[in-house]
């Protein structure tokens, strides 16, 4: 369990919990971990903002002993004096979340250096590592690389991957930053790290303001110009006679970027070297000779989600819990072995969260998981459904679902609801405020039903077990969107045999 970390962010605690209660929770967690033989498991607090945790650490000795690392989200490369006074390790525990074009790569290059130069943060964690979710969901391509089409296998290695290599290929856990880090005379920054065994790695960045803007927080104005930087190694490093050189040049002006290129080693004289730095560059100078850019085969071509798709969820031993291509927006939909029905519905997809999460995100009261192509307009989708909650239970099958993520509460589309009280409803939104049709269905819990939803142009219709239940509901907006399944509330319901035929 060495180096395992537990993060306990206050926003996920009940709002009524006082600051004293927060202190008690961290102390109790530390005590429980130690008593369970998990002394090496470290606690990060509060994984949000610098305050109020830093002030609490300074005021409470027991809390100070319990917490190992102070984590902040999107610190803008800066910390606060009280955080430094705690003498705790400081981390940027959520950062970046920026579109991964070359400006996003510039953001990553700048904050990887300046989070330490300005804020003494020794770790920067990217949210997220790989953008592997539907393109039209919030935070599209906000990962170090993009792999959002598992059906085609297409992926894109973006510039932030190569910027990451400038650091990770030439340092390891246990290396430490030297105190001699800082800003360059004409803008940019440099950091130096060592393994304590004579090896040295220096990373330099000269990212200009407009080419290194992150999604948050706002970036104050600053200037960077081309320059010649001079370095003098002293002490145990003065005897270094040569360093390996790796460079990334974003090429915003020339439109000819080059990333993570190995250059001719640089000779040092009495520990001295100079380096001509252009704007928007990253250099790594290191005593290590382990660097390698590597290569990868050309990825499969990008392609849209298949217009004809079926899944019966008949997976006896799934390697992971979520069915392919479903993207849960609220709730959790998992493979399930339905031992109460050893017939055609032995293996299903089940929504398993039965309590609304306590979270700062404005979640909907319903659960929803989307699948397919956001550009779909006209289609027929069929799915078997099973309600496990009597009277108040409910499920839906939907098309033209237009949003998710943080905006899921305001999601619109065509929602065909089936309820355990014997009724149905068709709404134009997930919240169920705009009703297009409703009536009696005779449905109950603990029985399997087959729902069919057809949307063509401005009209939608629905079938229950192959019989027309409603038709010609007028749908003016949205014009396109995903297919989705979901539940009326946070309740356990099952889905099986989904089949989609999209016409465009």
Automatic annotation (TrEMBL):
Residues 328-501 form the Glycosyl hydrolase family 59 C-terminal lectin domain. Residues 27-169 form the Glycosyl hydrolase family 59 catalytic domain. One of its GO terms (molecular function) is galactosylceramidase activity. It catalyses: a beta-D-galactosyl-(1<->1')-N-acylsphing-4-enine + H2O = an N-acylsphing-4-enine + D-galactose. Keywords: Disulfide bond, Glycoprotein, Glycosidase, Hydrolase, Lipid metabolism, Signal. Residues 177-292 form the Glycosyl hydrolase family 59 central domain. Pfam families: Glyco_hydro_59, Glyco_hydro_59_C, Glyco_hydro_59M. GO terms for cellular component: lysosome; membrane. It comes from the Eukaryota. GO terms for biological process: galactosylceramide catabolic process. The keyword Lipid metabolism applies. This is Galactocerebrosidase.
């Amino acid at each position: 369990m060495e180096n395992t970390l537990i993060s306990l962010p206050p926003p996920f605690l009940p709002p009524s919990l006082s600051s004293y209660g927060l202190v008690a929770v961290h102390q109790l967690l530390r005590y429980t971990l130690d008593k369970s033989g998990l002394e090496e498991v470290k606690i990060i607090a509060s994984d949000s903002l610098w305050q109020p945790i830093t002030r609490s650490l300074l005021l409470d000795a027991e809390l100070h002993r319990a917490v190992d690392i102070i984590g902040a989200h999107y610190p803008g490369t800066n910390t606060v004096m009280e955080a430094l006074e705690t003498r705790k390790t400081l981390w940027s525990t959520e950062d970046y979340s920026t579109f991964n074009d070359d400006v996003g790569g510039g953001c990553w290059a700048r904050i990887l250096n300046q989070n330490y130069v300005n804020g003494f943060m020794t770790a920067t964690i990217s949210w997220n590592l790989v953008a592997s979710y539907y393109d039209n969901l919030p935070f599209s391509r906000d990962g170090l690389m993009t792999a959002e089409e598992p059906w085609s296998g297409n992926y894109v290695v973006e510039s932030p991957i190569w910027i990451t290599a400038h650091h990770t290929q030439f340092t390891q856990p246990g290396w430490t930053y030297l105190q001699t880090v800082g800003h360059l005379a004409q803008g940019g920054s440099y950091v130096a790290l060592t393994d304590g065994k004579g090896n040295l790695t220096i990373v330099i960045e000269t990212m200009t303001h407009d080419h290194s803007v992150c999604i948050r927080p706002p970036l104050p104005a600053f200037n960077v110009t081309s320059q010649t930087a001079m370095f003098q190694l002293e002490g145990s490093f003065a005897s270094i006679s040569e360093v390996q050189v790796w460079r990334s040049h974003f090429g915003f002006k020339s439109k000819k970027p080059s990333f993570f290129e190995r250059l001719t080693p640089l000779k040092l004289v009495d520990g001295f070297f100079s380096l001509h730095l252009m704007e928007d560059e990253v250099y790594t100078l290191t005593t290590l000779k382990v660097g390698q850019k590597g290569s990868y085969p050309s990825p499969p071509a990008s392609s849209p989600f298949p217009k004809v798709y079926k899944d019966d969820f008949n997976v006896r031993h799934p390697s992971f819990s979520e069915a392919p291509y479903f993207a849960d927006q609220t709730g959790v939909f998992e493979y399930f072995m339905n031992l109460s029905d050893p017939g055609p519905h032995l293996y299903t997809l089940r929504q398993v969260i039965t309590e609304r999460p306590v979270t700062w995100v404005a979640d909907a009261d319903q659960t929803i998981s989307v699948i397919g192509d956001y550009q779909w307009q006209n289609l027929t989708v069929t799915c078997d459904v099973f309600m496990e909650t009597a009277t108040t239970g409910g499920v839906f099958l939907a098309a033209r679902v237009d949003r998710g993520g943080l905006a899921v509460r305001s999601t619109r589309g065509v929602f065909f609801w089936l309820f355990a009280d014997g009724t149905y409803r068709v709404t134009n939104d997930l919240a169920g405020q705009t009703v297009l049709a409703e009536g009696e269905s005779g449905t109950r819990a603990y029985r399997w039903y087959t729902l069919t939803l057809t949307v063509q142009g401005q009209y939608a219709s629905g079938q229950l077990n192959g019989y027309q239940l409603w038709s010609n509901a007028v749908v003016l907006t949205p014009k396109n969107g995903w297919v989705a399944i979901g539940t009326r509330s946070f309740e356990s319901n099952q889905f099986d045999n989904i089949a989609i035929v999209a016409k465009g």
